[in-house]
Amino acid sequence: MALFAAIPGNPTTIGLKSPSRTPFGHLKLVTLNNIKATMNNIHKSHFPPLKLGEELVAMKAKKVLEALEEAIPLKHPEEIHKAMRYSVFSGGKRLRPTLCLASCELVGGDENSAMPTACAVEMVQAMSLILDDLPCMDDEDIRRGKPATHKVFGEETAILAASSLLSLSFQHIAERSIGVPLDRVVGAIVELGSAVGSLGVLGGELLDVHCEGKEVSMEELENICVAKSSKLLEASVVCGAIIGGGNEMEIQRLRKYARHLGLGCQILNDIQDIIMSTEELGRTAGKDLENDKATYTKFMGIEESKRFSQKLIGQAMEEIALFDASKAAPFTYWANYFLTELAY
Amino acid sequence: MALFAAIPGNPTTIGLKSPSRTPFGHLKLVTLNNIKATMNNIHKSHFPPLKLGEELVAMKAKKVLEALEEAIPLKHPEEIHKAMRYSVFSGGKRLRPTLCLASCELVGGDENSAMPTACAVEMVQAMSLILDDLPCMDDEDIRRGKPATHKVFGEETAILAASSLLSLSFQHIAERSIGVPLDRVVGAIVELGSAVGSLGVLGGELLDVHCEGKEVSMEELENICVAKSSKLLEASVVCGAIIGGGNEMEIQRLRKYARHLGLGCQILNDIQDIIMSTEELGRTAGKDLENDKATYTKFMGIEESKRFSQKLIGQAMEEIALFDASKAAPFTYWANYFLTELAY
């Protein structure tokens, strides 16, 4: 991995850690030494949907950033809005909002109608990362290579900004989903709420913190990982489909895609926490080991974890195989993106 | 005030601090020494709507507690649900949810249709108190005479429980407002979000913390107090009216009632922080002075603050004078309740 970390270059506007890890655009920075990017390109030249997926995801990510810019203006009181904006615009792959928009289109909707929901899931993601990093949680000083929100603004502002992002996420869906049938708007709010709350991200975070240093069963580990990681991805994809008017079968397939991909990504995170440097990770490496977290790598070792993650992402891809390949390109793209990460 | 604090008795199920301060029921505990309660009774015997208001509020508070019991069951993960329940069921006058239900009825709706919204505003209130008490905010160890949520469950659980209550509040309105036209459901979610977020309760809390030890103008003080205290009361009343199908004029009048009452109550809180004991308050007395908070008492002294608060509550009463007196009885009751508090 150190090979890629050594390549100079600025993070992109959509916040990936280095050019070698950029999933779309910026190919001018690819060098001969960048084996991973080269392999990615070879892969894409043999599989057109990946190239299309990359372009679609890049376009969607750009639109999401523009919409978030409008959704979180720098109003009075400035300090809280600065902290909200800092956490939302500090980078990130924009996996969840781009899949939310893609999901809406996949079931026949217009992606613009899902934009408020896409912004909302990214607000929730930012909220969860702010809380994650607090001293009483994972006590992490850096996030995406920058100081964590509470290190810049103080704990009180970080907590209030996180809560404000959470509140705004629901308000934004309700207020800005113009022209969307109201049963879909209400349905998306219910789905998001169930993914975020005590039975989702926040409950999962608590289990994660409370399981430090303890023995957990495979079932408990899966429950923790699904709650803290998969559920928001699942809600992102399902909410997009709800807003787009997807039917039960479509929603079910997309839910399964996200559930599998989300768990696969969490296992990838566990692996990267061990094998990558702090610079590559953008956060303190080895933190899971230091905190004696319940992780898949602790449970089954790195190699077995890799195989399990690959299997899950493969299962995710199966779920979208029946959809139109062009419209499903962003889904194929993201699955391939994480499989490529796993290959190194 | 010490006179009333000395009266023995348990807090009621709706969590008031002592029998003398109970706004409904439990009159068997009233003694000859309890001047305040006696005066209250004399007042009521000359003004029937106050007695009716007391009964209506007591009934509504009971129903709200039953609905909250159902809304926040003790599920897995237990620790987070225990913390959510601890904060929600630790007492409180239930001012906001009872006015939410009353508001729905006042504009011609069925109070049951506003019950999910009434529960939601009480969840938000509990959330704000959990955050308020955190070490990085007001650093308060006791709340309503009991250990603050973070003292019982730890900071991490308290913060995650607070966020879960906030998330659940929106989800609950969206999921449980059965039979309510969806434009009203969505309207209530927007109203609640705007009252809670960075421009409401949470932004106000930040200004409140950041103004400690600083000189603020009268206008800034009013902005802080309205944001941190009035806006949620306003949303409670307005959301009830939205769910009940109130017209613009009705909503405007109810908003003004709540805005004035909310600010009046905040000033009363400022006064009580100085003149009441920790036992009477149920939280550490003199905390505002200790933290050098921006308060009305600091700005204009106790007597002037009292007069200003009385004036505001009087203005609140004027706003509801044009409604049917029986249906408006809970509004009259609460205004009178706080005026009585101010008289001592």
From TrEMBL, chains A, B:
On the tree of life, the source organism's domain of life is: Eukaryota
Asked if the keyword Nucleotide-binding belongs to this entry, the reply reads no
Question: Which PROSITE patterns does the annotation name?
Answer: POLYPRENYL_SYNTHASE_1
Q: Which gene encodes it?
A: LOC107416295
Q: Which cofactor(s) are needed, names only?
A: Mg(2+)
Q: Which InterPro entries does the record cross-reference, listed alphabetically?
A: Isoprenoid_synthase_dom_sf, Polyprenyl_synt, Polyprenyl_synt_CS, Prenyl_diphosphate_synthase
Q: Which pathway does this chain act in?
A: Isoprenoid biosynthesis; farnesyl diphosphate biosynthesis; farnesyl diphosphate from geranyl diphosphate and isopentenyl diphosphate: step 1/1; Isoprenoid biosynthesis; geranyl diphosphate biosynthesis; geranyl diphosphate from dimethylallyl diphosphate and isopentenyl diphosphate: step 1/1; Isoprenoid biosynthesis; geranylgeranyl diphosphate biosynthesis; geranylgeranyl diphosphate from farnesyl diphosphate and isopentenyl diphosphate: step 1/1
User: What processes does the entry annotate via GO biological process terms?
Assistant: carotenoid biosynthetic process
User: Which keywords does this chain's UniProt record carry?
Assistant: Carotenoid biosynthesis, Isoprene biosynthesis, Magnesium, Metal-binding, Transferase
Q: Which organism is it from?
A: Ziziphus jujuba (Chinese jujube)
**Family per record:** Belongs to the FPP/GGPP synthase family.
Q: Which GO terms label this protein's molecular function in UniProt?
A: metal ion binding; prenyltransferase activity
Which GO cellular component terms are attached?
cytoplasm
Q: What is this protein called?
A: Geranylgeranyl pyrophosphate synthase, chloroplastic
**Where is the organism placed in the taxonomic lineage, from the top?**
Eukaryota, Viridiplantae, Streptophyta, Embryophyta, Tracheophyta
Q: Which Pfam families match?
A: polyprenyl_synt
